C-alpha cells in the first residue's frame, strides 16, 4: 500500500490588516491537507512559517500556493527556493498560474513568473517613489505630523529644565537621564513648548 502524498498549503499576506481568506479558500478547493498562514512582507527574507513548513516537508509531498508571489518577490530567492524543493523531491504547485515544478515547461514558467514578480515589485516601488516626489514638489508634507508624542514626558522635561537645569542644579545630560529621553528629544520638547507659548 502506497502512502498518500501530503499537500501543504502556504498562504501569506504582507500586512496584519489584509485577509487570507481568498487564498485559504483556493487552497482548500485544491485539496491541501494542512494550511500554513503567515502575515509578513513578501520582500522580507525572513519568513519563519514558510521556513518551518519547508523544513518539515517529506520528499514526495507538495507545496501549494495561491500565487508564486506568496513565496516571495525576489526572483533570486524564488529560484533558490525552487532549486531546494527540486533537490528534496518536493513538488511546487501555483494554483493561479497553473504551474507545477516537476515538468520541463513548469520549471521554465516558474523562472519566468518569478522574474515577473520581481519586476512588478520594482515597478510598484518606482511608482510610489515618484508619487512621493510629486507630492513633495506640490508642497505636501509627508510623514508624521511634528508634535509632542508623550505629553507627560514633555511636561517632565519642561519642569526639569525650568527647575533644575536653568538654576544650575542639574546638567542637560542628567535631566535627559531623569526624564528618560535622549538629548535630541529633550531639546525638541523645549523648542515645541517655546513655540506654543
Automatic annotation (TrEMBL):
InterPro entries: Recombinase_CS, Resolv_N, Resolvase-like_N_sf, SSR_resolvase. The active site is at 14 (o-(5'-phospho-dna)-serine intermediate). SMART domains: Resolvase. Keywords: DNA integration, DNA recombination, DNA-binding. The keyword Nuclease does not apply. GO terms for biological process: DNA integration. Signal peptide: none annotated. GO terms for molecular function: DNA binding; DNA strand exchange activity. SUPFAM superfamilies: Resolvase-like. Gene3D superfamilies: Resolvase, N-terminal catalytic domain. Residues 6-139 form the Resolvase/invertase-type recombinase catalytic domain. It holds the Pfam family Resolvase. The keyword Signal does not apply. This is Recombinase family protein.
Amino acid at each position: 500500500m502506497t502512502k498518500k502524498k501530503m499537500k501543504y498549503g502556504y498562504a501569506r499576506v504582507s500586512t496584519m490588516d489584509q485577509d487570507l481568506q481568498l487564498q485559504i479558500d483556493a487552497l482548500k478547493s485544491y485539496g491541501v491537507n494542512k494550511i500554513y498562514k503567515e502575515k509578513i512582507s513578501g520582500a522580507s527574507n525572513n519568513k519563519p512559517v514558510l521556513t518551518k513548513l519547508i523544513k518539515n516537508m517529506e520528499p514526495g509531498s507538495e507545496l501549494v500556493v495561491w500565487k508564486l508571489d506568496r513565496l516571495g518577490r525576489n526572483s533570486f530567492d524564488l529560484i533558490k527556493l525552487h532549486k531546494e524543493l527540486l533537490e528534496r523531491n518536493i513538488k511546487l504547485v501555483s494554483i493561479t498560474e497553473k504551474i507545477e515544478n516537476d515538468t520541463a515547461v513548469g520549471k521554465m514558467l516558474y523562472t519566468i513568473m518569478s522574474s515577473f514578480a520581481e519586476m512588478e515589485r520594482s515597478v510598484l516601488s518606482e511608482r510610489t517613489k515618484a508619487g512621493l516626489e510629486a507630492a513633495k514638489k506640490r508642497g505636501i508634507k509627508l510623514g508624521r505630523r511634528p508634535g509632542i508624542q508623550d505629553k507627560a514626558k514633555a511636561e517632565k522635561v519642561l519642569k526639569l529644565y525650568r527647575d533644575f537645569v536653568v538654576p544650575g542644579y542639574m546638567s542637560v545630560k542628567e535631566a535627559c537621564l531623569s526624564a528618560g529621553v535622549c538629548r535630541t528629544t529633550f531639546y525638541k520638547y523645549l523648542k515645541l513648548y517655546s513655540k506654543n507659548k
